[in-house]
Amino acid sequence: MASKIEFQTELEVGIEALWNAITKDKVDLLRKAAPQLLTDAQVIEGDGGLGTLTTIDISAAAPHVPPFKEKIVEFDEANHAVSFQGIEGGFLKLGFTHYNVSFKLDDLADGKILAKTTITYELQKDIDGTQLVEEFSNFAVEYLKTVATYLQKAN
Predict the structure, then answer these.
(1) pLDDT tens-digit map of 14-43
(2) CATH class in words for 3-154
């Protein structure tokens, strides 16, 4: 049975800029925003929309996390909602049997947005995943903050 955690992060960045940064411009923006954290990132298939498949290697920042492949499985541009499913590697090799990370962006006005994050996951039966889930959640928050900080400086 799948578990779920949800949290919100308020960011000072335009909604369209962040939306593009986490979807169609994700790989290019990651290279620019966090070159010290990212070993490699590539779009294997797609254009940043539904079905886009990417590989990401963050071993420079987290040597214990293997490179991973993810796919966009939900893409709702009108409502600024996107979901990424882990396909192979990364946290799947560390104890998750399945995970899906969803971001929903809401405009708060005055150049601020609320990023609602939902992580749905299943862990291997023999793993106490408390620390793993916390690390994965922190990874999602830091990803959003890093991208937002880069976008703020770029403007």
Answers:
(1) 999 999 999 999 999 988 888 887 888 999
(2) alpha beta
Asked whether the CA dihedral 43, 16, 75, 1 is positive or negative, the reply is positive
The pTM of the full predicted model, rounded to 2 decimals, is 0.91
N residues, the chain: 155
Cα–Cα distances in Å, from 38 out to 26, 59, 66, 118, 136? 12, 7, 12, 23, 16
The domain segmentation of the chain, as residue ranges, is 3-154
